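We modelled the chain as a single entity of 433 amino acids. Its sequence is:
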Amino acid sequence: MSQFTTISEIIEEVSEQEIDIVKFHFSDIGGTFKEIDVPAALLENAFSKGLPFDNSVGGTFKPTGADLMLKPDPRTFSILEGGRNQKIGRVTCELTFLDGQSFDGCVRSTLKLFVRKIYQSGYTFSVSSSFSFYLLDSHFTGQPRDFSCSPETLLKAENTKRDILTALKNADIDVVSLRQTHADGPISIAFKEGSVLRTADNIMTAKYIISDVSRRHNLCATFMPKPLTNAEGLATTFGFVLMKDEFNEFYHPDQDMMISDKARGFIAGIFKHIRAICAVTNPTVNSYKRIVQKGKAPYYVSWSAVDRNSLIRLPSSRGRATKIEVQNADSSCNPYLSLLVLLSAGISGIDDNLTPIAAVNFETHDYSESEKQSLSAGTLPTTLRDALAALNSDTLIQDALGESVFTTLIQTATIEWNDYIGCVHNWELERYL
């Protein structure tokens, strides 16, 4: 399906496809799509003038004392299959005030404005991405048996994956691969390289589609970072490419590892701010059940072209394909905010001519923890509370988020931490009762 660019094209397509409802989607701070259904008869007015709504619908936005407007982006319009072969339209929106001024609590607008600034300063980034998820029994109870490999469940999962790929194609989302290494393991989906904003839009839309298709197959798709103690964690990766005049600025054929000083500065900038970044890229209490010693997720602050468990990895391709891949984020993260803070930190490292620690040029899986520590610039936070403390003292990341997003993020995450720390868990009952 070709990408739509104008309101008239969308109105015509809605009419031809006999679509009754178009879902207006917008992201909350936590990275979940909220939606308002708009009847097809009111669509032209909603697109041209915007759709006013009570900001309490957003759920996790800082109260503004004023109503807001949903402003749909026509380029994000797509048609999805609903239940009973019904077709449904959907579009991604930004939040504005009623007078059209940008709402500083809108995560999509915040990223969009930042991308515009870095473009004006001479940087042009493109991003590849991937994330993983589990397909679980719809009555998941947290027990290993819910990762069932019965013939019936396997068949449902295969049909679900097939329909997910079809739905993503119809939504104009280019998928490079969808793979599952073993029957009870996570499913990893990789997307084609694209612009920063489109990458974030695609991740959000893909999660919505995956959840919707899975539900119709009587399965539950989860993006919870660590849904079971012995289950593999769920990761999100971002691969950054810096272009200028068709040349990859991260590539340098005559320097060590064939990467440029700008690449090293980008890596060093992320390292400098990574503990605060984790409050965004690893935003839940459960996120830190994945970031543990001896786990598959990055734990030490290191970079490598060889060690696959490093925080930052350099894939082997060079030239136009030279890429810096950041691997600490998990599948619960908000892609708009995650890309925002990673780019902010990376660009600051370029601007300040920072230099990272030496790269690790070998696999470290057989090394002791003390040896791994000596090769790193420290560790990632081990709890959400640690990450929030780092964010509270990092003015660069705070400024990138903006006051409204930063305040709301801190408030909601602090409430989550306090709820968690005051709750008695099964592990404690089994150990102490």
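As a brief sanity check on the tokenised model: The mean pLDDT is 90. The first strand starts at residue 21 and ends at 27.
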